[in-house]
Design brief:
The chain has three helices and five strands; from the N terminus they run ααβββαββ. It has 185 residues and is of the alpha+beta class. It has one domain. A three-stranded antiparallel beta sheet has the order 3-5-4, with helices on one face. Strands 1-2 form a two-stranded antiparallel ribbon. Strand 4 and strand 5 form a beta hairpin. About 27% of the residues have low confidence.
Length: 185
């Protein structure tokens, strides 16, 4: 069975979920390192933690002392934005910093309480990172019109199921203005 045959509502077992998330994190780190890196902060300040959480995180939640969403939330997803939580199936709980989320025109920040109830990121999350000066098409990364290119051995980015070693199809796009790369499995 290929990833395309899995119903959207189906959720992989915890070991598959963790392996997929770990692989995506490692792959993303390699891509970022080869593209010149991004701006991230790991200082501790404040975050929105769910009030009805059944457990207390075993570590301080991440926060953002650098202003701006790009500096704190990228790459996305990242286990840097989680805390250990033994009460969840994945052993993690999201801890998206409340001081790093977008604000509306009135200066009111997005409430991340509901997101922080989740036991990690979806294994099919889009992957977003900053890559100034990257040329995705010139690098051989397939776009929405050539998703099959992502499965070729020559593709510089690979998303691989860690249990089956099967490559997952994806397409990449670059927001030229922000220099954000989005990979869509």
């Amino acid at each position: 069975m290929s990833p395309r045959d899995i119903p959207v509502s189906a959720r992989p077992a915890a070991p598959v979920w963790r392996k997929h998330t770990l692989f995506c994190g490692i792959a993303l780190a390699v891509v970022i390192a080869s593209c010149g890196g991004g701006k991230n902060s790991q200082s501790v300040d404040s975050t929105t933690v769910p009030q009805d959480s059944t457990s207390v995180p075993t570590q301080d939640p991440p926060t953002c002392s650098v202003s701006g969403v790009l500096a704190c939330l990228l790459p996305w997803p990242s286990n840097r934005l989680t805390v250990a939580d033994s009460s969840t199936m994945t052993g993690l709980r999201l801890a998206i910093p409340s001081d790093a989320v977008p604000v509306n025109i009135d200066g009111i920040a997005m409430d991340v309480t509901d997101q922080n109830r989740a036991d990690g990121f979806s294994p099919n999350s889009v992957i977003v990172f900053e890559a100034p000066g990257v040329d995705l098409l010139g690098s051989g990364v397939g776009d929405s019109t050539d998703i099959g290119r992502s499965l070729e051995d020559s593709n510089p980015i690979k998303i691989v199921d860690q249990q089956t070693q099967e490559k997952w199809p994806f397409w990449g796009e670059l927001d030229v203005q922000s220099q954000l790369v989005t990979l869509r499995p």
